[in-house]
Every structure is written in structure tokens, then in C-alpha cells.
Automatic annotation (TrEMBL), chain B:
<comment type="similarity">
    <text>Belongs to the ABC-2 integral membrane protein family.</text>
</comment>
<feature type="transmembrane region" description="Helical">
    <location>
        <begin position="120"/>
        <end position="143"/>
    </location>
</feature>
<keyword id="KW-0472">Membrane</keyword>
<dbReference type="InterPro" id="IPR051784">
    <property type="entry name" value="Nod_factor_ABC_transporter"/>
</dbReference>
<feature type="domain" description="ABC transmembrane type-2">
    <location>
        <begin position="44"/>
        <end position="274"/>
    </location>
</feature>
<dbReference type="GO" id="GO:0043190">
    <property type="term" value="C:ATP-binding cassette (ABC) transporter complex"/>
</dbReference>
<dbReference type="InterPro" id="IPR013525">
    <property type="entry name" value="ABC2_TM"/>
</dbReference>
<dbReference type="Pfam" id="PF01061">
    <property type="entry name" value="ABC2_membrane"/>
</dbReference>
<dbReference type="GO" id="GO:0140359">
    <property type="term" value="F:ABC-type transporter activity"/>
</dbReference>
<feature type="transmembrane region" description="Helical">
    <location>
        <begin position="79"/>
        <end position="99"/>
    </location>
</feature>
<feature type="transmembrane region" description="Helical">
    <location>
        <begin position="163"/>
        <end position="184"/>
    </location>
</feature>
<dbReference type="GO" id="GO:0046677">
    <property type="term" value="P:response to antibiotic"/>
</dbReference>
<feature type="transmembrane region" description="Helical">
    <location>
        <begin position="43"/>
        <end position="67"/>
    </location>
</feature>
<keyword id="KW-1003">Cell membrane</keyword>
<feature type="transmembrane region" description="Helical">
    <location>
        <begin position="250"/>
        <end position="271"/>
    </location>
</feature>
<dbReference type="InterPro" id="IPR000412">
    <property type="entry name" value="ABC_2_transport"/>
</dbReference>
<protein>
    <recommendedName>
        <fullName>Transport permease protein</fullName>
    </recommendedName>
</protein>
Amino acid sequence: MISAQRLSKHYGDFRAVDGISFDVPAGEAFGLLGPNGAGKSTTMRMIGGVSQRTSGQLTIMGLDPEEHGPEVRAHLGVVPQQDNLDEELRVRDNLIVYGRYFGLPMSYLGPKADELLEFAQLTDKASAKVDALSGGMKRRLTIARSLINEPRILLLDEPTTGLDPQARHILWDRLFRLKEAGVTLILTTHYMDEAEQLCDRLVVVDKGQIMAEGSPAQLIRDHSTREVLELRFGSERNTTVAAELQGIGERLEPLPDRVLIYARDGEAALEEVSARGLKPLTSLVRRSSLEDVFLRLTGRSLVD
Amino acid sequence: MTTGFPGRELRLEGSTRPLAALYSRNAKAVIARGLLATRSSNGLVLVSGFFEPVLYLLSMGIGLGALVGELDGPDGRPISYAAYIAPALLAVSAMNGAVYDSTWNVFFKMNFAKLYQGMLYTSLGPLDVAIGEIFLALLRGALYATGFTTVMALMGLLTTPVALLMIPVSVVIAFGFASFGMAITSFMKTFQQMEWVNFVMLPMFLFSATFYPLSVYPQGIQWFIQALPLWHGVELLRQISVASFGPATLIHLGYFVIMIAVGMLLTTLRLRKLFLK
Ligand SMILES: Nc1ncnc2c1ncn2[C@@H]1O[C@H](COP(=O)(O)OP(=O)(O)OP(=O)(O)O)[C@@H](O)[C@H]1O
Ligand SMILES: [Mg+2]
């Protein structure tokens, strides 16, 4: 459905997206992970055809979104990182008018808008002004709006930022069902649990380049150990004690608030820590997660 | 809920229609949105746009008119000072409204309200948005022109039914300014640069034979003013107001036809710069 080859976007000398390539088949949930400023939103905007690429190839459903923007976007649903609701219109009108932009008839839009208001749990706010909505409600309305044209591809740029846990689970459920129905999902998120739950496959992007690609399980296997030992020595000591921990496990990651020891067997690593006479305030052995992969691939710049 | 797609690749045909990248023939959705938004706003903006030229006409036409007395009209016959400046004020109001809508308003909706970002994520292309917005600006201009012409009639400044043609012609004048304004906005990046728009418009308003005949200026300055669009608008409406037509009328009208054509061409060429970052 989507194919990008050496896709780049430069702002002046700055390379926001620097030659990334990926293919997304129909019906896949594809995640873009990466630290702030990695180029995720920029990539999303190029897919939507609202940002012109500097170089590289991009085809969506066989077409170049720059040459066939209106045709491509007819099948696209977009949740931008920042809500861009129409503040001059009421809540329900936001959905109706947005549907009109797609050239959809009123007979379809009326019932569809009501269904989406129900999904966004905004039925009783239907005739409220957008200003009067809370941040999370606006987010829900933006998400509902993206579904008005029953898109084949859904671009979700940090869709759940600002949502309460209940709303987040309602959205996850909806996204699962859309995926079952064959909708292709492109998702960015800073919540690793979300990426792990929703994405079939993901890429980790940093400084406009792809650092790793694969399914969540595959990435964990390739870039982390089976278990992680988390130790807290108190904020002053975490970094100084790191030197004394050298050699335990396969890799050591001192973070500001804790030290992570990557090891196949976390309990064994903990025993070795005690054997060296070190007494952490707290210790925890857990399974490796996507967050560990993310920190490994992109997080070190925060520490160095 | 969803109809369900069989999970297979969708390949789109790819229209070969000209402008397919920029235009989806759905400017009417942008217009419908504008009307809905106006209906739910308080309408104060609409009212102020109507009163501004009317207040100028009342204060200067009656106040200054008492001092100035009568002037030679376009056909050589003397007319009251109010009747002299009224068509000029109509041209100025057409210019101001169109320029405001196509520059400040577009700039704001683009960069601050993010309205266009939302629109451009749909099937709409930038040309749909541009046409829709220009149409809305012209519709508002037509309303103001009708209101102003009614005031002229009430003040006894209309001597011929031909003068009603001022309404559609002021829409043409507005179109010229709006199409150019949008092209110019595509070059603007900051609010400071937008201030230049006012910097150009104010002197044009004051010196384009609005309040006194062009003949008071030396020849060189006359030529300069005659090159500016507002002077053509003022002269055109002034001639229509007393039904005095000549070859110059066609030149004035032609000026705006060319201005619209060039402005729309430029706007279309600049659409990607204006709307796609
Ligand atoms: N219009 C612009 N002009 C100049 N630089 C820009 C522009 N838009 C984005 N950038 C830069 O491009 C880089 C990538 O931005 P982008 O918004 O794609 O990041 P992101 O991965 O979405 O980050 P976040 O997680 O914070 O949303 C950033 O360094 C940003 O400063
Ligand atoms: Mg982003």
C-alpha cells in the first residue's frame, strides 16, 4: 500500500528525514518509533501529501501523493500530532463539514457523524463549541473525524497522547477492529506498550534515519537480552556505582534514576551484584521490553 | 461499522485530468464551511466592514462637501462632492475587503488556526481551498457593495439606474485584488512581512484620485498613480455612477481582467508554496 525509497526532507541544511526506506503491505499495522525530533511527523506529512519531499520515491496505493494528492487522500484518514479542529464550528458540524471536504453526501454523513460521536463518547457534546471541549475530548473528536471517510489507510501521529486510560482502550479496540477489517495503520507513539500491542512491525527512527526494523518480538530478540535487572541506588549513586557493576550481565545502561543490567538470567545477575557487596535500595527482575530496545538504539545520547 | 476491505492492495488509477494534483472540483465544500462558520459567528465583523466606507462618506461627503462645493464629474457636468467620492470609497472598500481576506485572513488560517492543514488532509486540493476562499471574499464584497449603494441611493447620490452596475463591477475589482493578494501571501513568512501589505495600501487609498482629481499632481506622479490598480477601480466606478462611458472605461475594465488572469495564474503556481510546506 505504501512504499518509500530513500525518502528525504531537508529544511535548509537540516535533514529532518534523511533517506528512509520502507514498505507497508495492505492491512498491516506499521509503527514509527523514535525520540523527539526524529522525523516521524515529517514522514507522516509526506505520506499525506501535504509536505513536499526533498528527494526519494514515495507511492501510496500506486500513486505519488504529490502528483495525485486529492485522489490518494480520499482513502486516507489522518490524526495529526496537533489537533487542528475547526474552532469556528460546533462538534458535530466538525465531522459533517470534514466529510463534505471528501465530497461525501449528507445522507451518508448524518448517520456516520452520529455513529462516530458515539464512538468518541461525545454524543452529549454534539452541539457544543470546540473551544468548550477538554484536551482529551478534542483528541477524541480528531480521531473520530479521521474515520469519517472510512479510510483504507489511517495515519495516526501520537493518537493517544492526552487520552485517559479508558479512552485509550476504546481506541485500541477500534484500531484492532479496523485492522481486522483490512485497514492499513501507520502509527507513531511514545508509549512502548502501545507500539508492542498494536504494531505488527515497526521501525525505530533517529535523526531522520532508520536504526532498526522488525516485529516487536523480533526487535527485542535482536537488540536486547531476555531479562533486565533494574537497580536503584539513589539518584546520586546510580552513575558512580556503575563502574563497580562492570562485567555483570551482557550490557549495562546507567540511567539518571536507575541502572539497567541486561542479562539472560536476571536473578543470577542480582546474586552477583550482592556478591560484590553492593546493596541497591530496590531491585527488580523483569522481561525485556520494547522500551529497552528503544533506549538502546536511541537513548544513549541522553546519557552521554 | 466498517464495510471491510478484503485486505488486499488497492491500486488507484491516477487521474490524468489537468491540475489533478491541486484541484478536486470541490471548492463548494470550502464555501459551505465558510457560510456555516459565518452563521455561527457573532456577525460583528460583517457589520464593521459595511460601516467603514459609509462613515467616510457621511463625514467627508457632508463635512468636507460643505467646504468644497461641487466638482466636475467624469462627463464634465458638475456633481456634489459626496457624489464625487462615493464611487471611489466603494472601490476602496472592495480593495480593502478583498486584500484583507486574501492576505491577513489566509495567513492567519494557514499559520495559526491551522484550518487549511485540516482541509488539505482531505480530498481537497490547494486550488479548491483558494477558489473557495476567494469566492467567500467576493460574496462578502458583493454584500457590502449592495449595502453601500443603498446608502448612496438614500442620500440621493444615484442619478441613473446604470449606477447599479457598480455592484457587480466592484466585485470584479475585488476579484483582481483578491487573486493578487493570495499570490503575495504565499511569499510571506512572518507577521512583520504582512505589515508591508498595509504599508502599500494606505498611500494607494489616499492618493488614487479618491478625494480630489488626479490633475492636482505633476505629470510624473500622475503616470505612476495611473499604473496602480486602485486608480482604475476608482475611475471605473466613477464613470458608471453617472453613466458616462468612453474608451477609457474599457481600459479600466481590461486592467482588472488582466489583473485577475495574472493573479490567478500566479496564485495557482504558488499554491504549493502557500499551502504545502
Ligand atoms: N517547518 C519546519 N521547518 C524547519 N524544521 C522543521 C520543520 N518541521 C520540522 N522541523 C524539524 O524536523 C525535525 C523532525 O521533526 P518532526 O516533527 O518530524 O519530529 P518527530 O519525530 O515527529 O518528533 P516528536 O516526537 O517530537 O513529535 C525536528 O528537528 C524539527 O525541528
Ligand atoms: Mg511528531
